[in-house]
Amino acid sequence: MELPSSTDGCVYFTRRSHPKGTIIAWAPREKCTSCKKSFMGKPVDKKGKIRIRSTEYTCKDCGNTAQKEQYESSLTANVIYDCPHCGKHGEISVPFKRKKAKIVDPEDGKTKSVEVLRFPCSFCKKDIDVTKKMK
Question: How many domains does the chain have?
Answer without folding.
Answer: 1
